[in-house]
Design brief:
The chain is of the alpha+beta class and about 475 residues long. It is about 30% helix and about 20% strand. It is built from 17 helices and 19 strands.
Length: about 475
């Protein structure tokens, strides 16, 4: 940020916490009001309160005058440029409880951050407290029991690397830098979901800090109502500090991409639908669609954890369509995971999605037409949901997206702020065109929020979730999420 803007921000927040950061504590003026760019509740914070908070935690406070403040406050979606008053880099669950108490006592906005991949930038806030779990990322594996226990700051790659040492894995996200906590609490799609279900279906228990500072274990045997809610209900009910997962044998996989010549979108999407209808649970396939100078292109990403010879035979219909590039080969599961994710590096973007029970001809036509008029940095991802993830009854977990079909993610990216409006307009136009064919949304991939969308994402589970919200967070402290409002 510009020097003058930074100085003004420092004066407004009035943080003289350099007793914690190695500078004289009297370096700034007396406490003043926090700037409030988002219209959130803020309060004055006096330096003594910050000193006291720092002395009561085992982690670290990062405040605006710290040298790494600007890099630490950034989240993956660079469309969000927010300035928290204090980032609490937690080292233990007790730090989380203390940060929660502090934020409520000072009437400050509260954000919880694991991997920072929220499409809505929910891992940061203006003028408030960020509970940063990124320092808590240990993963322990009990290979005999096929169970992994991971701290909530762990990323997908941390979990995968730890479990693959024993030839084991569980469903985790396709992008290595996604935080496992946000992924799992919102449902959790991944390459193994057809065979083993969503990430939340493999959750055995979780450690949760509630709004009143209690540390609870949520499982089928302990606080089962909370356990039901956090498997799909996101961060609405508390701060999860550790997660325990069921593991499965996963060794080498057949994985890679088939990239086709431009201007064949309808043909290729129809072929994908036919392929998905016949594929076994161990096969995962999704399509990435994007504009190019020659016309819209399609890349089909493949991952099969079954017999590679059988998987290669199954790919014959897709290979018969003569891809220009075919990188599908046998590789370690870790290699397949490392190459995943349709957004590899932090970038400003706007994303939404629709869930289509079918890839009907009208829906395919709408997609193909939109891609011809897409901005240069647009992308569309078609993620089939089928197999184990779609065989769980929708009421068994808060994650309700259980019908077989296709989650269609629509993304617009920009580096120049002048391109933002074009990207957003294109995304929203295609979203609206697909609405007549849609039934629900996947909340984890939603870059917009409203009561209507949240209700749509939770479906028939919404009423039960509101009751549990009243029980565990009656004043809606945990509101920077796809929020379940207390009515």
């Amino acid at each position: 940020m510009a020097l003058t803007h930074r100085r003004r921000f420092l004066q407004q927040t009035a943080f003289a916490v350099t007793a914690l950061c190695g500078r004289p504590f009297g370096a700034f003026s007396a406490a003043g009001p926090l700037f409030n760019a988002s219209g959130q509740n803020t309060a004055r914070i006096d330096p003594a309160a910050i000193r006291k908070l720092g002395s009561e935690i085992s982690g670290r406070l990062i405040t605006p005058e710290a040298s790494d403040y600007d890099s630490t406050r950034l989240v993956f979606n660079r469309a969000f440029d927010l300035h928290p008053a204090v980032i609490v880099r937690c080292a233990a669950p007790s730090d989380v409880a203390r940060a929660l108490e502090f934020a409520q006592g000072k009437n400050l906005p509260l954000a919880v951050r694991s991997g920072g991949h929220s499409r809505l930038g929910h891992g940061v806030c203006d003028g408030g407290v960020v509970i940063d779990l990124s320092g808590m990322k240990a993963v322990k594996v009990d290979a005999a029991k096929r169970v992994a226990r991971a701290e909530a700051g762990a990323l997908v790659r941390d979990l995968d690397e730890a479990t693959q040492r024993f030839g084991l894995a569980t469903t985790s996200g396709g992008c290595p830098t996604v935080g496992i906590a946000g992924l799992t609490l919102g449902g959790g799609q991944g390459k193994l979901m057809g065979l083993y279900g969503a990430a939340c279906d493999n959750l055995l228990s979780a450690q949760v800090i509630t709004v009143d500072g209690r540390q609870l274990e949520a499982s089928q045997k302990s606080h089962p109502d909370l356990f039901w809610a956090i498997r799909g209900g996101g961060g609405n009910f508390g701060v999860v500090t550790a997660l325990e997962y069921r593991l499965h044998p996963v060794a080498d996989v057949l994985a890679g991409s088939l990239i086709y010549a431009p201007a064949r979108i309808p043909e290729l999407l129809e072929a994908l639908a036919q392929f998905v209808a016949a594929e076994p649970d161990e096969m995962d396939a999704l399509a990435q669609l994007f504009p190019s100078e020659q016309g819209p292109k399609c890349k089909i990403d493949i991952c099969s954890c079954g017999d590679p010879r059988i998987a290669n035979d199954l790919l014959k219909p897709l290979r018969a369509l003569t891809p220009q590039q075919d990188t599908v080969k046998v590789m370690p599961y870790l290699e397949a995971q490392a190459g995943g994710g349709f957004l590899q590096t932090p970038v400003a973007h706007y994303q939404t999605n629709q869930f289509l029970p079918q890839l009907s001809s009208p829906a395919i036509a709408a997609i193909a037409t939109a891609l011809h008029d897409a901005p240069q940095r647009a992308k569309l991802i078609v993620v089939p949901l089928r197999g184990a993830i779609s065989r769980v009854p929708s009421g068994d977990t808060a994650f309700a997206l259980r019908q077989p079909g296709y989650e269609v993610d629509i993304v617009g990216l920009w580096t120049d702020p002048a391109d933002k409006s074009t990207a957003v307009r294109w995304v929203n136009t295609l979203r609206d065109q697909l609405q007549p064919f849609a039934h629900g949304v996947y909340l984890n991939q939603l870059g917009e929020t409203s009561d209507q969308l949240v209700r749509s994402g939770y479906g028939a589970n919404y009423l039960r979730l509101t009751d549990l919200k009243k029980k565990f967070d009656p004043t809606n402290v945990f509101r920077l999420n796809q929020n379940i409002k207390v009515e």
